[in-house]
Amino acid sequence: MATTPVWSFFCGSFPFSGLSVRSHLMNDPKIFFAGCLDADPYFCLKQCDRTIVSELGSWGVKVRELHKELPPGKVFRKINRKVLYPALVAKATKSCVLNRIDDYALRNTHYSSLLHISSQCYANLIPKSSIPTTITVHDVAEFDYPEGYTSAQLRRWETRIEQLKNAELVFTVSDFTRQELIKKTDVSAEKIIVNPNGIDCGFRVLDESEILNLSRNPLGTRHKVVGTRAKELVNGALETRFLVLAAGSNIYRKNLPTLFKAVEELGRRGVPVTLVKAGEPIGQKSASGSESATARRDDGGQRTERRGLKTVLHGVEIINLGFVSQTELNTLYNLCDVLAFPSFYEGFGMPVVEAQLCGLPCVVSNASSLPEVGGDGALYHDPADADALADQLERVYKDRRLRGELQEKGFSNAERFSWGKHVDILLKGFQRVLGN
Question: Glycosyltransferase subfamily 4-like N-terminal domain: from which residue to which, for each copy (predicted)?
């Protein structure tokens, strides 16, 4: 059973210091931070929210959590999922306990001067709040790509998007998402501020000793392909396979069928290619509960043949790693040859910048926010053109100089994004809302 989302609220106090953003933010400086903050190493939004709260602390903000889940760990996670919040009682639990806590806190203004909501997923809190409210919108993909979402999810999404116009300020993680809101919602353009995501500094280039350790213990036996690549790098051997990394979910807009066709084409051209899939395993239902793109017959009429971790599609080998931790993902960014990210639609596209931080060349779609985020540190292709994707991947495979250029430009591009900058823009937005 899926874990029912649990609200977490934070109340923070800004100390009075020499920095104008902090010293003049408000007379009684308290804010609520509403987000998805339970510990989960595999869910990007939760990691982002935790990082933002940590950055607020580095600015001197004292953070207090008003609602808690049990501590992280397998045992506690199972208790959260199967005992505290089982699916059959989730609605009752949420309405009878959590929502009452939320309502009381948000309707009593002496608790806080401002509420910040970390995602459009939680926009249903806006009408509950009797204090000024700001919110971050990551994307509005459901307008153009409802595939992968159930009808019930889409109805809830529409209700929440409708509430955005009632927020005092809306942050978006890219200018692309800002333009989408202006075109497709009633949110005033004057209310919308672009505030790009930061990238966790844990993503980095591994040194030789770390790669040596990986060759001995490659993240457990299920990651043999990682150990093989690590041994090749340590021994200076000629790399025998061209490892194309795909990271993320399998919903339709991720456009995996085009990637499958491109990898198949590379194989026909004689490239010894292996596709490494991290995230939602190929062939499973998407996280939303609906059928994923990879389970449909839009990959050329053939379903994948699964053999444990290995999947064979049109004779091309795919390594199905499943969900990986941030440490494991960092390792994959270091040991694969290229990131392929052919998505039709992204509000930001964090894997692109994560890969760039690790020195991994990126071949990405030229759609939505991706050119804005990838900058000149990536190669681009039409997301509907599998041959164009194959061409760009082949360029990376054959051209050592190009790989070096993409690495250097990727490092430079990734420097544009940090959580410190993100929180700075948040605080200036809070200052604007509160009239200081």
Answer: 122-201
